[in-house]
């Protein structure tokens, strides 16, 4: 495996406040790795170190086999960076901004190509201050792509984008990945991570709470079934739940909620019982765990542990 990004025991403190408290992860060439986390979890603090904008308080970091801060001159031309806040000169037009940036970038793509990739060609003559928030994010992305980077760091690339622009950006990121670009992105949109990420890490208060492929992170969580029993049926009429694979259950009035690690088996046995018993299950809902549930549960559990 060709490791492109590696952190070992990475720490970052701000005047005694530990924002990143020792994290380890690797990203292989061509992989898309998503850093998720609650607000203030330490994602941007981590990203800034990987981008060579800051030094770690402890631990080591390697990007393309080098120290991104000390060996910035060697690393910077090979990476593309999209910050959370771009900060462009407001009076320049979109095209002038891209040309100015291209002037500082070795082997830059033509400005037209960068603008076409990010669907900004029709806005080329507009001043930056007149762009919408979403258009500014796309301009940020255009600049990050100018140098045809081997590694792309994207800090919340689709925040503020409308649904169509978000999907266009996902498509573009997917194409860049297909061309072999290694991507590390942070996002608050769990659907974005589900769509794009090969692997992800969920950060919480400076630590990685869980990491793995999306399917693995989700597989650690139970699936859920809920339904309402009709008024003429008693809860006691339900078959024994444990043999159906139910790991947890609760009732509220006539509503029954079940958790299971084997959704197909539990659902099949429940529906078979209902059919034989002539019971109609109202408001029946059966669903696999989602990344969102995994995320919420991790954040809740860790908060409970810390307040204990
Ligand atoms: N320059 C700084 N000085 C002091 N504290 C800081 C500084 N930058 C960040 N922090 C703190 O470090 C913690 C981690 O911040 P960071 O921006 O890395 O989190 P994040 O996961 O990117 O959050 P968000 O999702 O809200 O963007 C937060 O508690 C933040 O207030």
Task: Please provide a brief summary of the model.
The chain has helices at residues 43-50, 72-75, 94-103, 111-117, 133-145, 163-178, 190-196, 214-219, 263-277, 291-307, and strands at 3-14, 17-28, 32-37, 58-63, 79-82, 151-155, 182-186, 199-204, 207-212, 223-228, 246-252, 255-260, 282-287. The chain is of the alpha/beta class. The strands form 3 sheets. It has a 6-stranded mixed beta sheet with strand order 5-6-7-3-8-9, sandwiched between helices. Strands 11-12-10-13 form a 4-stranded antiparallel beta sheet. Strands 2-1-4 form a 3-stranded antiparallel beta sheet, covered by helices on one side.
Describe this structure as you would to a colleague.
With 308 residues, the protein is an alpha/beta fold. The protein has helices at 43-50, 72-75, 94-103, 111-117, 133-145, 163-178, 190-196, 214-219, 263-277, 291-307, and strands spanning 3-14, 17-28, 32-37, 58-63, 79-82, 151-155, 182-186, 199-204, 207-212, 223-228, 246-252, 255-260, 282-287. The strands form 3 sheets. It has a 6-stranded mixed sheet with strand order 5-6-7-3-8-9, with helices on both faces. Strands 11-12-10-13 form a 4-stranded antiparallel sheet. A hairpin with a 2-residue loop joins strand 8 and strand 9. Helix 3 packs across helix 4 (111-117). The mean pLDDT is 91. The structure holds adenosine-5'-triphosphate. Adenosine-5'-triphosphate (ATP) is lined by residues 14, 17, 19, 37, 39-45.
């Amino acid at each position: 495996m060709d490791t492109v990004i590696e952190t070992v025991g990475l720490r970052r403190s701000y005047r005694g406040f530990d924002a990143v408290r020792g994290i380890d992860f690797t990203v292989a060439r061509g992989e898309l790795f998503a850093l998720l986390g609650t607000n203030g979890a330490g994602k941007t603090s981590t990203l800034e170190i990987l981008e060579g904008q800051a030094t770690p308080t402890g631990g080591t970091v390697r990007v393309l086999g080098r120290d991104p801060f000390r060996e910035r001159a060697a690393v910077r031309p090979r990476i593309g960076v999209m910050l959370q806040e771009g900060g462009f000169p407001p009076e320049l037009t979109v095209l002038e901004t891209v040309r100015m940036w291209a002037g500082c970038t070795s082997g830059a793509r033509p400005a037209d190509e960068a603008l076409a990739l990010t669907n900004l060609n029709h806005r080329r003559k507009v001043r930056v201050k007149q762009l919408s928030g979403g258009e500014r994010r796309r301009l940020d992305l255009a600049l990050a792509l100018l140098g045809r980077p081997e590694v792309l760091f994207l800090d919340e690339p689709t925040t503020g984008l409308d649904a169509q622009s978000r999907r266009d950006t996902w498509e573009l990121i997917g194409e860049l990945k297909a061309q072999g670009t290694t991507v590390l992105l942070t996002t608050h949109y769990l659907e974005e991570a589900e769509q794009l990420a090969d692997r992800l890490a969920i950060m919480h208060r400076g630590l990685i709470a869980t990491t793995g492929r999306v399917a693995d992170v989700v597989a650690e969580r139970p699936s859920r079934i809920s339904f309402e029993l009709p008024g003429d049926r008693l809860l006691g009429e339900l078959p024994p739940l444990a043999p159906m694979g139910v790991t947890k259950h609760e009732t509220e009035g006539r509503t029954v909620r079940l958790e299971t690690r084997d959704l197909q088996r539990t659902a099949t046995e429940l529906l078979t019982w209902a059919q034989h018993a002539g019971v109609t299950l109202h408001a029946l809902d059966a669903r696999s765990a989602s990344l969102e549930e995994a995320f919420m549960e991790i954040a809740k559990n860790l908060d409970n542990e810390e307040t204990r």
